[in-house]
Design a protein that fits this description.
The protein is an alpha+beta fold and 146 residues long. Helices cover 53% and strands 17% of the residues. The radius of gyration is 29 Å and the shape is rod-shaped.
Length: 146
């Protein structure tokens, strides 16, 4: 009798643990693949959605300068920003805040050219004025997206 029969005894607990760890490994690999895949499809779709999400019209956001109020108006079409301007810019505001109008003109040109308020350049001397104006423009653009 030379049969070499082997009996393998598996415990149910070991099988369950192995199945759980194998499932977690597959899940981890799938998540890594989804998170780290290279594809500009999603980014360009989001960019297109953001650019075409405007409701055409003129939208404004108020900017408080001391006791004066200045409105930043943004004119948009369905797919692009047409113009950005300060309204009304009284002589009192122009005199008290001389950087306001030139800074807005520079920013408006960049915003219309790039169709975005991100990565704009402005001089250090008008940094805070530019940031206040950009915040107001972003507020007006948020109104245009709704």
């Amino acid at each position: 009798m030379s049969s070499k029969t082997k009996i393998v005894v598996l415990r149910m607990k070991e099988i369950i643990y192995t199945a759980i760890f194998a499932g977690l490994a597959i899940l981890l690999i799938a998540l890594c693949f989804i998170m780290f895949r290279h594809g500009n499809d999603n980014g360009s779709e989001k960019e297109e959605t953001r650019q075409t999400a405007y409701v055409p019209g003129i939208y404004s956001a108020s900017l408080s300068l001391g006791s004066e109020q200045v409105n930043v108006e943004v004119t948009v079409d369905a797919d692009q920003i047409r113009a950005v301007a300060l309204v009304p810019l009284s002589e009192a505001v122009a005199t008290m805040y001389p950087l306001m109008q030139p800074t807005m003109e520079g920013l408006a040109e960049q915003i219309v050219n790039t169709q975005s308020t991100e990565n704009l350049t402005y001089p250090d001397s008008s940094r805070y004025t530019s940031m206040a104006l950009l915040k107001a423009v972003d507020t007006a653009l948020e109104k245009a997206r709704q």
